[in-house]
Predict the 3D structure of the following.
Amino acid sequence: MNLILALDFGGTKHAAAVVASGEKHQLSDKRVFSPPNPHAQSDLEIMLSLARELLAGREPRAIGVSFGGPVDATSGKVRLSHHVSGWENMPLQEILEREFGAPASVDNDANVAALGEHRYGAGMGYNSLLYITVSTGVGGGWILNDRPWRGIEGMAGEIGHVVVDPTGPVCLCGKRGCLERLASGPYIAQQTKDRLNLHPDKGKLLRSLCHDNLDEITGLMVSQAATQGDKIAIEALETAGWALGVAIGNVANLINPQRFILGGSVTKAGDRFWNAIHHIARATALPEVHFEIVPAALGDKAPLWGAVALAEDVLMREQGRAGSREQGEES
Amino acid sequence: MNLILALDFGGTKHAAAVVASGEKHQLSDKRVFSPPNPHAQSDLEIMLSLARELLAGREPRAIGVSFGGPVDATSGKVRLSHHVSGWENMPLQEILEREFGAPASVDNDANVAALGEHRYGAGMGYNSLLYITVSTGVGGGWILNDRPWRGIEGMAGEIGHVVVDPTGPVCLCGKRGCLERLASGPYIAQQTKDRLNLHPDKGKLLRSLCHDNLDEITGLMVSQAATQGDKIAIEALETAGWALGVAIGNVANLINPQRFILGGSVTKAGDRFWNAIHHIARATALPEVHFEIVPAALGDKAPLWGAVALAEDVLMREQGRAGSREQGEES
């Protein structure tokens, strides 16, 4: 039995799993939260001890890693983390290979989650898809021709900073009307708060959910209020759904993939949100361009399952190499 | 010597070329205009006689075809032509294979032009690129991982109907602010005309170029007037450049390709147009996302050279198959 070690370095929590290669249904995994003021070194130590605990003395044959930030997938070096300092140019693949004596493969979380959904989730059997996560931020990962497409610098899938409305509100990145500015959880909350400030007579439900402290409004509260018919909440979610629909319809025209898979906390916002996405995406794509938009199947385990897939691919390459060595074909 | 037959079925003109496989510098080609009220059958006959003339009794070993409309590249069947009737479901590949006794490969003009620029033009040595043609319409073709990316239904590359400004003017397709609506030649002319109607005191130069008949204004006249400093013309070209810049920057974030190659008559509109594209594309893409935007190298011969590349690939596959038959590896 070939043992696979799968690791998911998140912004605020880390998860690890050990699974037998070929196993598709069970993942014995463990997750821990980062301590306050995390640093690369402490995060790495937390993850190593988590992995050792799960391995319990056994040796993995391959390691797959999802990292919450830009990675050079070829060398397995982390470029940086947007949340945690000390990760700059960390040779994560090399460190793990030395630590566990097995080959490793590292990629960023959106690409790895896309791979997870493709191999074990809502993308099974589809050879081209865009996975979009809508949560604190908005990001994406591609599968084209059954393989991850990372772009020339590993930056492909940055759908959060695609401009959908050039006259829209200013995003953290400095541009106007980025998808992330219109559809991410914190911005949905902020838009709602701004509207409530403008209309002190409206949004009774929202005000009670946040105990009249508008700064405490979250995307989740907006979803709850929308389900119960709150107009301001509904408007905020429909704006987010509209922005996602425009982005998805544009991408359908550009790349013509089979499926869009949407994950992340905001995608739990209910029918009104999903209806807006479907309606606007369909209206934005050309009539001849067909596609499906479906919810992610693996939830927050997508990166961990994707890490399993990365490790399976490493094993496959190793076995291919061993096979050709036996046949004496390798020089 | 293996002879290649390359065919380019355009909307208003057809071109054919005969070239020796492996030849990269000379294309003995001929082009003819379609008669008025063209039909699929007459277009096909024109092309066949053009090809026979160039072949002069010799037999091609492979045929590559660029077709000005949607094609099922797998079967080599034309879906339809937007300009000429009678093409619906025409088995073009099969017809040509029967006629010339050689294997053929057919794809739509934007994909084939992208392949031409990739193999023989401004895309040589680049493994991922988007070719964009800006002319009567706006279209595109992808090369990803050194191969054409056509999408699941052959519809990839439809950048002309990507929405760049949801509050913009209405496009022929019914949506607002499509790239084609803002950047194609006829729409640049129309925008200019609308502005001239609003400002009867402005645009002396443009008015003289069209002999005071505003309906006769063309994209070319707008370019000429802009070069000589006409403000209305400059504004129209800067709007087109802005729209292309937004679209390119968004695509860079989404797909992270190495190069954007721009061809078509509108791209000859001068520095102001190109500067707007470069400036806005750079501002729209994330700072970490790098790319180049360059003019096409092959001009209106890109589809013909792309057809040569399609035929070269057919030859390569044939030779691969012959090779494995000799080795007895094929079942």
